Amino acid sequence: MVSNKTVLFDSIPNHEPVDSLKIVTQQFDLDRQLAPGEAILKVEMLSLDPYMRSRMRDPSIETYVPPFTLGEPIDNGGVVIVLKSNNAHFKVDRKYYAGFTLPFSEYALVTEASNAFYTDITDAELPNETLIGACGLPGKTAYYSYKQLVRGKAGEKIFISAASGGIGQMLCQLCKMDGLKVLAAVGSDEKVDYCEKTLGVDRAFNYKTSDTRKELAAFGCDIFYDNVGGKMLEDVLDQINVYGRVICCGQIATYNSGAEAYGIKNTFQIVAKRLSFQGFITFELIPQKPFHESKYNTIEEEFMATIPSMIKEGKLDVKNHVYNGIEATSQAFLDLLRGDKHGKTVIQL
Amino acid sequence: MVSNKTVLFDSIPNHEPVDSLKIVTQQFDLDRQLAPGEAILKVEMLSLDPYMRSRMRDPSIETYVPPFTLGEPIDNGGVVIVLKSNNAHFKVDRKYYAGFTLPFSEYALVTEASNAFYTDITDAELPNETLIGACGLPGKTAYYSYKQLVRGKAGEKIFISAASGGIGQMLCQLCKMDGLKVLAAVGSDEKVDYCEKTLGVDRAFNYKTSDTRKELAAFGCDIFYDNVGGKMLEDVLDQINVYGRVICCGQIATYNSGAEAYGIKNTFQIVAKRLSFQGFITFELIPQKPFHESKYNTIEEEFMATIPSMIKEGKLDVKNHVYNGIEATSQAFLDLLRGDKHGKTVIQL
Ligand SMILES: NC(=O)c1ccc[n+]([C@@H]2O[C@H](COP(=O)([O-])OP(=O)(O)OC[C@H]3O[C@@H](n4cnc5c(N)ncnc54)[C@H](OP(=O)(O)O)[C@@H]3O)[C@@H](O)[C@H]2O)c1
Ligand SMILES: NC(=O)c1ccc[n+]([C@@H]2O[C@H](COP(=O)([O-])OP(=O)(O)OC[C@H]3O[C@@H](n4cnc5c(N)ncnc54)[C@H](OP(=O)(O)O)[C@@H]3O)[C@@H](O)[C@H]2O)c1
């Protein structure tokens, strides 16, 4: 028996999930007899992503992700080492990336139902946090949506919110490679510096101290890649160019606000400016063929064949915020929703 | 000299345009010498359309339509007879349909600048109100946007707001011809009857006395054709199916509300349900080739070759609300914005 710290879903939050996660120490039997299909994993790193806020809800509300279960561990993506296995998919001592379903605990027992979510990354030659971030959900979200939906052309002006986050940082760089003009909104001066000096955007501003409308009016905007929603989306509708396109990735500004969400009053601009909006969910883009000419069969194949090597060659910058110890989970998640972190959020166990 | 009653733009409204239009009686010289390009028109009928509310604004605000000028006549579409002409485009005693730019007056003097807006309809064999409505702006708006943007498939469920209005009545019928299932929202029980019995929609309801969310939940909704915006749009976002499409034609519920417009809080549904939105302006669709297979070069050609004859053959119903006398303009426009009329609004002179 070893002790196994686990993060349980403890209460449904109305606003900020301040008391929603509870750390408990359970016992885990490393010597248990494994049934066919079972494997024991040691968790090395866990990923925190904004969409987990939607899972902290009353289970009677239906939406695009299943709810967390009260009293049960929360789960998400991460990196694990296989300690014991009675499942051909999981090889002992090898390292796996889990896209989803990994419980927030130090050790985990999985069955064959998990196979589809775990990929062997032993030979990936990249740090865990990069495999979770730039090569994981946020990196893929940026890449797939950029190639399949944004389809930017050189010279087009794109406004990116939450631009230094996991998705934003990758997207800014993809846009610059294709010659787009990038305006980036971020929540601190340090992030402004990062976007301009490291990511190479044309202009970044701190939306807490600068006027978003004035920035948009001065820079121009053909495309809005929206990670934030709320008031910022309203500002964009008044400033975006005629025929503007809005790619709706997320609305992090609204996740904690419940019934008091900011109400957007100027949706008539969609008619007056002939705007289009497109919402998407990353995993639905995975199996799609690349929209552009490509030698790859799916957009995921193309991503795997190009992005990790570009990162290794230093052609793409990657910024992660690493918290230490599973106990940091609750605070790290609050920081993520508040913007009090810089880059992709991961927990090092 | 004859007296020439004229409707002037008298004050910029904050909410309902109750005092914005003023009738004055001016003098008009029917015997004047016409300069080259001039013609004298007698106005037979005038069209009132919701977008005219956007023109009653502070001219410093830029949007998709030019503002009315304080102290000058308002203008829009209508039907005229040519009394005198020194312009080859305008032939004496013939009847013309004006799409735009016809001043609200009993007589009008036009120059060559007007030629592009006037079409000879002497041989059209349809009543003026039908030429203005079903064969004019609202009919074309419904047809062009249905064929180019809605692109409905048999069995798809479409929700249409302001369904008995100029656009709605045509759209309901086009959808039924293609086998779509139509849910119609209207503002009175009489209009409910009209939609179900005359237009043949699958279900209509009075949104003032029935719960829009419950109606949508019971009927289902793949496509929302939005003429109204505001609270009804918010209701739809919560009820529309995954991958739903919103065709943004207008937001009449917001035109009078100014800064107190209803704020839409649930735009995150665009992401969660992977929705798309498309705004459009009718005149930009005119020159487009039909999206579907068609022997016509433009969608306008196709419309003119099919819709007027279908109306003559009784295959399409047309409902207009005819006001008498130019003095009725102000009240008729208030009625239009309040929904206190049934069908396309026109003024018979
Ligand atoms: N559609 C999909 O399939 C999909 C997939 C993954 C993620 N997403 C969405 O994409 C968005 C970004 O995700 P991510 O992984 O890049 O997140 P992330 O790295 O955690 O970045 C989130 C950032 O959002 C910013 N933020 C937080 N509250 C804000 C507010 N009230 N106003 C403005 N900015 C705020 C903060 O940065 P600042 O300091 O700059 O404010 C924060 O660092 C989220 O909305 C997420 O839900 C969608
Ligand atoms: N995009 C374009 O190019 C274009 C072109 C033309 C028109 N439009 C827009 O299309 C829409 C319909 O135009 P139309 O010519 O068909 O107008 P219409 O025949 O005058 O119909 C307007 C109808 O809207 C309904 N309405 C008014 N206030 C409402 C409210 N607060 N909530 C719900 N319904 C309300 C009323 O019917 P009920 O009794 O049923 O409520 C009214 O009869 C308008 O928004 C207009 O601005 C757009």
Automatic annotation (TrEMBL), chains A, B:
One of its GO terms (molecular function) is oxidoreductase activity, acting on the CH-CH group of donors, NAD or NADP as acceptor. Keywords: Oxidoreductase. Residues 16-347 form the Enoyl reductase (ER) domain. Transmembrane segments: none annotated. It comes from the Eukaryota. PANTHER family: PROSTAGLANDIN REDUCTASE, PROSTAGLANDIN REDUCTASE 1. This is Enoyl reductase (ER) domain-containing protein. It comes from Wallemia ichthyophaga. The lineage of its organism: Eukaryota, Fungi, Dikarya, Basidiomycota, Wallemiomycotina.
